Amino acid sequence: MPIESEAPDYFGRYQVLEELGSGAMGVVYLCVDPRLSRPVAIKVMRRSEFMTPAEQEQYQARFRHEAEAAGRMNHPDIVQIYDVGPAYLVMEFLEGQPLSVILKDGSVFSVRKVCALVLRVADSIDYAHRHGIVHRDIKPANIMMMNDGGVKVMDFGVARLESSTLTAIGTMVGSVRYMSPEQMMGERVDGRADVFSLAAVAYELLTGCPPFPGKTITEVVARVVHGKHVPPRQADGRLPEAVNAVFVRAFATSPADRYPHALDFARDLQTAAQSVLDLEVTYPAAEASPTRAEASAPTLKTARTATAPAGIPGENTIPHAAGREAVLALDSDPPGAEVYLDGQRLGRAPQPGLGVSFGRHQIRMEARGRAGVTTDIELTAARPLQALTCTLPLAVAGPGGVRPGQLVDFGPEVTPPRRIAGETPAYPDAARERGIEGSVVVEAWIGETGDVIETALIESAGGALDAALLQAVARWRFAPATLGGVPVSVRLIVRHVFRR
User: Fold this and answer.
1) Based on the domain organization, do 167 and 40 belong to the same domain?
2) What pLDDT shows up at residue 496?
3) pLDDT of residue 89 exceeding 60
4) What CATH number corresponds to the domain at position 476?
5) Radius of gyration over every alpha carbon of the chain, rounded to an integer in angstroms
6) N or C: which end of the chain has fewer CB within 10 A?
7) Nearest-angstrom CA–CA distance, 368 and 474
8) In whole numbers, what is the pLDDT of the chain averaged over residues?
């Protein structure tokens, strides 16, 4: 069912303001959420007019499943999904430009800036993989360069849906030069396909050229499946020989021979390029050839004219510099975690006084036996001195790789919690007398003992009705959720409809 060219007035409660962009797979609108008075971007997925009713129903079910899985992710460099409709996503509204647009404008990036960007994207990719989500379409058009210097990776979950469920003319034209050989061959795909695609993006950023050049799509595909990329030092003789070996591993035709994690690739690349971090790469205008074409418009763009971002955070970061603009103090629990600032390793926590530039920066901390933590922090002239402490959770352990009490995403392998005590909310007399009715949605955090640890209001129907449900849920007790027989924590969405 194709999308109409004229924009609708509403998607659910979201009011449409204008169309931001369209492509082979969907249309993006700038909308406003009247309940929270905030702008949002809504991506409406195209469904083929050749689908049968059964196929459309299957598509819609899978769309919702993939979108809900992506919506549970919470990473500073991944676009946040707020809501899911029948065939649309409600996402945070981003102000910036896709990397693909910036590259076509003849921009200049330093190798240092490239490495910082690749590290941030790699961290978001690994985070998604730990949550069971493979992107399948990492490319410059899906990397948003924010006006404030941040980075956001778009279309997690949706890219998988698009690449595996739908067929659109020209889709492969735009993505073929970033696609792994197993994707091209229709074989099983896991996170190492995203590592391959990220390497293709990194190669292009470092050299200004595609790693698998060709005059036709067929020629490009043949080079990819046979592992015949152009060594980066051959594409740009200023690059050190050590960079070649990094891409040999990243572009291995067999996934087993590739880097297992995106951060492994990104860190090896930064190490290999240490001697040329200040080298600048100029990107030529896009060629009118099948391997240079983008099949679709940017997934998101700003409603007003956006300027190219000043740079990736960390480009001008000078740790412990005398002429510093701001100071950042970092510590970890437990102490001694490895600290990375905008992808660069600084040493172990605590780091009591780092001189940094104003703007947004990414902090990552890692420790043996602990899960890594990534967060963003913004330093301004009004807030030039900040301290950040991160608690690193224990790495998964025990039967099935899960520890008791671990907060897990609900899925088919998780036995859901079962309420064993507590009453449904009573209709407040004051609300009934005034004729107040509505639907309240609450999120409850159910711990491994079955107790309700925390509640949060998701959708309001007024103070009296909200309080009735919140108070009732807080008194509930559950038989806890389990994963592989281990009691775990889950988040449960509770909806109650109050009608007179």
Assistant:
1) yes
2) 93
3) yes
4) 3.30.2420.10
5) 24
6) C
7) 36
8) 81
Q: Which of 260, 265, 233, 282 is nearest to 103 (CA)?
A: 282
Phi, psi for 310 (deg, rounded to 5): -65, -30
Residues 32, 10: Cα–Cα separation, whole Å: 10
CATH of the domain at 332: 2.60.40.10
Active site residue 155: no
Residue predicted with more confidence, 303 or 44: 44
Query: Catalytic one among 33, 83, 126, 137?
Result: 137
Both tokens of residue 49? 């007019």
Residues in the chain: 500
**Beta-strand runs (E) in 322-476:** 326-333, 338-341, 344-348, 351-356, 359-366, 373-379, 385-391, 414-415, 418-421, 438-446, 452-459
What's the mean pLDDT in 170-193?
Answer: 76
Across residues 67-93, what is the average pLDDT? Answer: 81
Task: Determine the Cα–Cα distance for residues 128 and 126; give it in Å rounded to an integer.
Answer: 5
The better pLDDT of the pair 221, 132 is held by 221
Tokens linked to 80:
């946040």
Strand-pair partners of 44: 27, 88
Residues in contact with 429: Cβ distance below 8 Å, sequence separation at least 6, in sequence order? none
| Average pLDDT of the residues in 139-164 | 76
